[in-house]
Amino acid sequence: MPIKIYIDQGHNPSGFNTGAEGNGFFEQDITFEIGRRLYNLLRTNPEFTPRLSRPTADTILGTSNSTSLTTRVNEANAWPADVFISLHNNAAANPNATGNEALVYGPGATVARGLGEEILEQLTLTTGLRNRGIVYRPGLYVLKETTMPAVLVEMGFISNPYDAELLAYSPDLFATGIYRGILAYYDLL
Fold first, then answer.
1. pTM listed for this prediction
2. Which pLDDT band holds residue 134 (cuts at 50, 70, 90)?
3. How far apart are CA 124 and CA 19, in angstroms?
C-alpha cells in the first residue's frame, strides 16, 4: 500500500491567508511551485500517493484565514493521509536571517520530528542553506489538528535576498531536498 502524502502549499494566491512578501516575491507563489514539483517527484515513485492542497495556481481554500486552515486539515484527515507536509517560507526583520527549519507539534511528535530532521538534512545538501533545526510549535493549527504526523517546512527566508532568489529561481532544489528527505525517512534513499 503506497504511503499517502498530503502536500499543503501554504497560503492562498490572493485575498485572505496570503503569505509573506519579500524581495519582489510572494510566498504563496513559491510554495505552490515547490509543492507542484514535489508532487511530481512523489507521483512517479510507486511507494507514494501524493495529494496537493492547491492543485492549480488559482485554487483558493476556505473563505477566511481560519477556514483556509480548516479546509487543508479536513482534507488530509478525511483522505486519510499518512503524512502531512506544509510548505512555507520564513520572514524576518533582519534581511541576513537565512536557512531552513522544520516545525512539529512537540517533543512527543517523534515521527514528525524524524521526518523533519531528514528533510532538513537533505535540504541543506541540495540548497546549501543552513539547517536551523526543529522547532516545537504546539499552537499551530495544521500541526495540532491533523490526525497524522505533520511537519511544517520553512524553506528559506523570503526576506533574505539570496534565499528569496534561490526559492524563486531554483524551486527544484527545494522539491528535491524535501523528496530526498522523505525517501531517507522511509529508508528508500
1. 0.97
2. very high
3. 23
Q: How far is CA 64 from the centre of its chain?
A: 20
pLDDT digits (tens, 9 = 90+) for 90-113: 999 999 999 999 999 999 889 999
Q: Where are the alpha helices (H) located in 79-170, listed in sequence order?
A: 110-127, 141-144, 161-169
* pLDDT score of 26: 97
Long-range residue pairs from 50-57, CB within 8 A, at least 24 positions apart, any chain: 50/4, 50/5, 50/6, 50/7, 51/4, 51/5, 51/6, 51/7, 51/75, 51/76, 51/79, 51/81, 52/7, 52/9, 53/6, 53/7, 53/8, 53/9, 54/9, 54/12, 54/13, 57/13, 57/29, 57/32
Quote the percentage of the chain above a pLDDT of 90: 97
Looking only at the bridges linking them, the beta strands covering 100-104 and 131-136 are parallel
C-alpha distances (whole Å) from 43 to each of 37, 94, 153, 179 are 10, 38, 20, 11
Q: Which three cell numbers stand for residue 153?
A: 517546512
Please count the other Cβ atoms lying within 10 Å of the Cβ belonging to residue 80. 13
Parallel, antiparallel or unpaired: strands 3-9 and 83-90:
parallel
The full length of the chain comes to 189
Do 153 and 178 form a contact (C-beta atoms < 8 A)? Answer: yes
Mean pLDDT over residues 26-34, rounded? 98
pLDDT of residue 1: 92
